C-alpha cells in the first residue's frame, strides 16, 4: 500500500506535526510505504497565478505539479493533516488542491456530468481545531466541513473519504489528551490481520 501524507502546518511544535509523524510510523508498522509532502518545508506556492491558469488550460503542466500528481495517482491511501483556520483549510493546502487536483487529471466533464478520475483511493482527513466540536455541531458546521472539505473536493474527484477526524481544543489539550487523540487518529485504519498465511 502506498500512503501519501499531505501535511500543512508551519510549526514543528504543533499537534499536526506529531500526528503526521505518527501516521508515518504507523504506515511503516503496517508495511506500507509512506511519502510525506510537507507543504511549508517545500515552500509550495499556493497561488494560482494567471500564467498557471493558462498553462492548466493548455495542458502545459509544470514539472513540480506533475510530480505531485504522480504521487497522488500512485497512492492507495491519502491522509491530509491540517489545522482548521477560519473554518477552512490553511491557504497553502487550499492552493495545493487548486493546482494539483486539476481538470483532466482529477476530474473531467463527461456525457453525464462531472466524472471523478481518481478512483480506488481512500482518503482520511485530520482536522485540528481551537474550538469545541459541539459548538460547530450546533451551527451545523461539522456536517458542512465534511461536505466541503471532503465531499466537494476528494469525492468530487472520485476518491472515497473514509473518515474525517476532528481534534477539538488542541491549544489547551494536556499531554494525555494529545496522546489519546493520536491513538484515535491511528485507530481509523483497519486492524492488522492476525491470520498470517504459512
Ligand atoms: C489563522 C488561524 C485561524 C484559526 N481559525 C480557527 C477556526 O476557524 N476554528 C477553530 O476551531 N480554530 C481556529 N484556529 C485555531 C487552530 O485551529 C488551532 O490552534 C490548531 O488546530 C491547533 O492544532 P495544531 O497544534 O496542530 O496547530 C485558528 C488558528 C489560526 C492561527
From TrEMBL:
Residues 1-183 form the Flavodoxin-like fold domain. The keyword Transferase does not apply. It comes from the Bacteria. The keyword Amino-acid biosynthesis does not apply. Keywords: Oxidoreductase. Belongs to the NAD(P)H dehydrogenase (quinone) family. This is NAD(P)H-dependent oxidoreductase. It comes from Carboxylicivirga linearis. The lineage of its organism: Bacteria, Pseudomonadati, Bacteroidota, Bacteroidia, Marinilabiliales.
Amino acid at each position: 500500500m502506498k500512503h501519501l501524507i499531505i501535511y500543512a502546518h508551519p510549526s514543528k511544535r504543533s499537534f499536526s506535526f506529531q500526528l503526521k509523524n505518527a501516521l508515518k510510523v504507523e504506515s511503516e508498522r503496517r508495511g506500507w510505504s509512506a511519502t510525506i509532502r510537507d507543504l511549508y518545508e517545500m515552500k509550495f506556492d499556493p497561488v494560482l497565478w494567471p500564467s498557471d491558469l493558462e498553462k492548466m488550460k493548455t495542458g502545459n503542466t509544470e514539472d513540480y505539479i506533475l510530480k505531485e500528481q504522480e504521487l497522488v495517482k500512485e497512492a492507495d491511501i491519502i491522509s491530509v493533516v491540517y489545522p482548521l483556520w477560519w473554518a477552512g483549510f490553511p491557504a497553502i493546502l487550499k492552493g495545493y488542491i487548486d493546482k494539483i487536483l486539476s481538470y483532466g487529471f482529477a476530474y473531467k466533464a463527461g456525457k453525464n456530468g462531472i466524472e471523478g478520475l481518481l478512483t480506488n483511493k481512500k482518503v482520511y482527513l485530520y482536522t485540528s481545531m481551537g474550538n469545541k466540536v459541539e459548538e460547530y455541531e450546533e451551527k451545523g458546521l461539522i456536517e458542512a466541513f465534511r461536505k466541503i472539505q471532503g465531499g466537494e473536493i476528494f469525492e468530487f474527484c472520485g476518491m472515497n473519504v473514509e473518515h474525517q477526524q476532528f481534534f477539538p481544543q488542541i491549544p489547551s489539550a494536556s499531554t494525555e489528551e494529545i496522546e489519546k487523540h493520536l491513538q484515535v487518529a491511528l485507530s481509523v485504519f483497519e486492524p492488522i490481520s492476525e491470520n498470517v498465511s504459512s
